[in-house]
TrEMBL record:
This is Iron-sulfur cluster assembly protein 3. It comes from Morus notabilis. Gene3D superfamilies: 3.90.1010.10. Residues 59-79 are annotated as: Disordered. It comes from the Eukaryota.
């Protein structure tokens, strides 16, 4: 949960391609995760990749044009 929450904060205001540069190792180091919890950082990194891929497929727009503003939790979609 902490890894996903952290990544959500990190991607706000970044271009999508820039958000894709966030790696699980950064998350592990920032949160000082023990080895048994590393998989949470991998899930968070993969979530970023999946979200950007989904956006590209649905909108067919260059990711350079969009910024990550956050997520509307009620509607489950990007702002």
């Amino acid at each position: 949960m902490a890894a996903s929450s952290l990544v959500t904060e990190w991607v706000k205001g970044k271009q999508m391609e820039e958000a894709l540069t966030i790696k699980n190792e950064e998350i592990v180091n920032y949160l000082s995760l023990p080895p048994i919890k590393f998989h949470y950082s991998i899930l968070a990194e993969n979530s970023i990749k999946a979200a950007v891929k989904n956006y590209k497929e649905k909108h067919g727009k260059s990711t350079e044009e969009r910024y990550c503003d956050g997520v509307d939790r009620d509607k489950g979609r990007a702002l």
